[in-house]
Amino acid sequence: MERSRGRRNRPDLPTRESVLLEFTLTPPALAARAPTAYHVLRTNQVDEYDEAVSLEAVVAAARRRPGENFRGTARRAAKLSIADAIFEAFGDLKDLITSVPDEEAMTHHDPPITVASTSNRVAEERRNVRVRAFLYAASREDDNDFHLIVGRAPTLQPVYMTMEVSGLPPSNSRHRATLKQARDAYKAFFQDHPLGLPGASYDFYDPPIPVEIEGSLFFDMSHVTGGRPGPQDLRDDIPTIWEVHPITRIVFEP
Asked: Which residues contact 61 (CB under 8 A, 6 or more apart)?
């Protein structure tokens, strides 16, 4: 582990002032080739609605074991369910984002979408998608979801979307096994490094990590007003509060 010497030499990298520490992550070898080493820049950047964090808090959070079960309440029923639908495949994240209804329509949806724990999926959220993209940044939220900022290839105009590896539902949920498999796959990629899994603030990855993700679409009613999700340096290129949530399958370096 070393203190930051980071530079913002690409638009997908964080500003120098926000980088608290850096380390190299070498994940387990996948397929018959040597693993790629990723430079991890751990920042003090958080979602717009969260409070800033210190270096000490970031390191302590990364070393804690806060559990695996979902601890949130907002739209809990929808977040912990998987849509009953076939998978729609997208080759470009921008096409996926274009396919969802606009925020105005969802904000005034009939029947209304609320943030109550019992708020379940509406018709527009009963969609499953599959997309190949890149993981640019990630954090761990208080509810035990891992908050992934997924974007297009670095050579394309930047567009990002939030996708979440969910905290686990109760043991009697029919969705638990699928969500646990996705969560285990995510964690396995990062856990060889003692600080590998992100904490309360965002980690950025250099280079961004290729991923294939499957999951259900979800409209995050919590962010219709107030702060927006995503780290400060990428937030302007996150055009929607639609998410893939929960992720049901994640493959790194496909």
From this structure: 53, 140, 199, 200
Cα–Cα distance, 229 to 46 (Å, whole number): 8
Longest dimension (CA), the chain: 52
Q: Check if the beta carbon of residue 75 is closer than 8 Å to that of residue 221.
A: yes
Tokens representing residue 89 in the block = 């495949």
Q: Which two tokens stand for residue 17?
A: 């002032």
Identify the CA nearest to 166 among candidates 185, 144, 149: 144
Both tokens of 184, joined, read 């285990």
Integer CA distances (angstroms), 158 to 12, 131, 203, in order? 8, 16, 18
| CA 238 from centroid of its chain's CA atoms | 12
Q: Which of 70, 223, 96, 105 is nearest to 150 (CA)?
A: 96
SS3 of residue 20 by DSSP: strand
Residue with tokens 């997309």: 131
Q: What is the pTM of this model?
A: 0.93
CA atoms within 13 A on the CB side of 177: 2
Determine the Cα–Cα distance for residues 241 and 218; give it in Å rounded to an integer. 9
- The backbone torsions φ and ψ at residue 217, rounded to the nearest 5 degrees and listed phi first, read -75, 145
Q: How confident is the model at residue 82 (pLDDT cuts 50, 70, 90)?
A: very high
Element (H, E) at 138: strand 128-140
Helix (H, G, I), strand (E, B) or coil at 164: strand
Q: Is the pLDDT of residue 165 over 60?
A: yes
